[in-house]
Write a structure and sequence with these properties.
The protein has 123 residues and is α+β, with helices and mostly antiparallel strands. The chain is 37% helix and 24% strand. The protein has two domains: 1-57; 61-123, no CATH class. It contains four helices and six strands, in the order αββαβαβββα. The strands form two sheets. The protein has a three-stranded antiparallel sheet with strand order 2-1-3, with helices on both faces. The chain has a three-stranded antiparallel sheet with strand order 4-5-6. The longest helix has 14 residues, at 3-16.
Amino acid sequence: MQGYELVKQIEKEKSAHADRIFIKWWRNEEDFIDFDLVTRFLETLNYSSEISGFELIDQDQMWKAVESRTKGKVSKVQRDGKWMVLWTPPKGAETDITCTECPYTPETLLKILDAETGDNYVD
């Protein structure tokens, strides 16, 4: 699936499930899985790229993926009425996260997952 057909399917799914702000997608080779925000994925999509499949997921599902991948090195706590993520990056991880207590945002979750997997999530 590629190009216009892919965008059509994503938009249809997105309109039916507005809370699903992440996309989990994979190539035909199924050699890795990638995650991104749906809006950013659509903005940067190369219409000639071949995508084998995708799933739109919500923030809770993304949190579960991060928890699973970090194997107990991440936790979510409430501070002053706001959810925060407690995380210590692995040694040598390339990340632009400079906090060990970060806001619980979609961007934070993606950055943690990328740092934990070296941008190469294999399921």
